[in-house]
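Hi everyone,

Forwarding the result from last night's run.
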Amino acid sequence: MHRRSLLAATTASLFTPALLRAQERVLSLYSSRHYDTDRELYDGFTRQSGVRIRLIEANADQLLERIRSEGANSPADVLITVDAGRLSRAQEAGVLQRVDSAVLQSRIPAHLRDPDGHWFGFSMRARVVMYDKTIGLPAGLTRYEDLAKPEYRGMVVTRSSGNIYSIGWTASMLAANGAEATEAWARGIAANLARPPAGGDTDQIRAAAAGQGRLAISNTYYLGNLARSQRAEDRAIAEKMAVLFPNQGDRGTHVNISGAGVVRTAPNREAAVAFLEYMSGQAAQSIFADGNSEYPVVADAQPSAFLRGLGAFKQDQLNAARIGALSPEALRIMQRAGWR
């Protein structure tokens, strides 16, 4: 009887959740990206490695809280999210571990990854000014700083100050110009708004196309996705709009990233690192480019035909980690300035 009990206990121990995951070769991805085309990314990794993807989707704050609450028993292997600010929050919360990968260090540009290897950017979006090409760009507008000038009163449409894209954009201004000048700029933006901030980037593009403001602040991939929409009215809006890449005469246009890191308690660390390295490969980078109109981050991958049609641009080389570090102050500046 004792022998049978011991055998049962031994057999049960062979099928703990961790061992079952190892036997099934499952990688748990916690992702705040909500794009159907990402499934192609994950399927490609499974075909290449034999590791099946278990996908958990929620917004970034929910995922971070879930990993914290799960503690040492969290099944999360990789956290994927949008913008350096959110990646920095995850790092500061202690949920990401350092990855020392020669592949990632050689393929991901230094300004698009954490200097200490806690996270890496895998796709990029430029934050630009969009305008109705039939009306044209107002005279004298070439820089982000110009958007705060009185002559552009009632022309600007943009997201709220609490949006992560607005925060990252303002953090880049803070890094370039300092706190005093950035607060004056934010006051100018608030004064120049055509309407109270509302909606996402696509809403800003639609507003400018409809004449509810003249200068829409948006990430490039939103225009690309309108251009590839199955709806004729979306494609008509995209065809109507033109793009200004600001600050081409000095530091370059602000970019934000979508990136990932290995969770500190990852049960499948080796597979998690392999997944990050796969994301930097040319095949995965092409999916980012063609699947969601994002800019690839590696030198040997091309943007989509639509983005190539917008032309090459000089990008701000400010390290994404610095943007994340300045984000809390940037938000306080916008709120003090009346940018709601």
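Residues 12 and 189 are 63 Å apart (CA to CA).

Cheers,
N.
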